[in-house]
Amino acid sequence: MEPIVRLQWDEGADRGLPLPAYQTAGAAGADICANFPPEARGGGVVIAPGARALIPTGLRMEIAPGYEVQIRPRSGLALKHGVMLPNAPGTIDADYRGPVGVIVMNGGDADFAVRHGDRIAQIVVAPVVQAVFEVVEALDETARGAGGFGSTGVAGGVAGGVAGAVAGGVAS
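Structure (tokenized):
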């Protein structure tokens, strides 16, 4: 069964704008629009290079228990304009009922204008698993061990210098 996300308009939101919508049948994310209050609709917001802004969506959400809504960037905005979401993916928890905003950052080299009604991000509904945390004296050993950032290298094939043997004993 598909999870249900109930939506409520914020006071002053433009109810003529589209609700989050999947743009294609196979889309994982539903596009969500900037929905500025009446006094900001004419000009929107201009984000300078390196700056960020909280863009209102005009919506509040009631997310089915056991799910979250992730806010993710739109790839076209990232490629064409350097627009990103610095906390991507952002999480809207199932028990949050406040206004939904999107933190937008301009990583490009020119000002970027967000206008009222622009599709600024996409939302993905995802299941949530809550873990049980426990302190132990030792952790299981693995081949990787404590190898951290960059420890597996960048070249294709066998990673991190761990050679896999193939027939005849020749390492790949």
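The two ends are 46 Å apart (CA to CA). The chain has one domain: 5-127.
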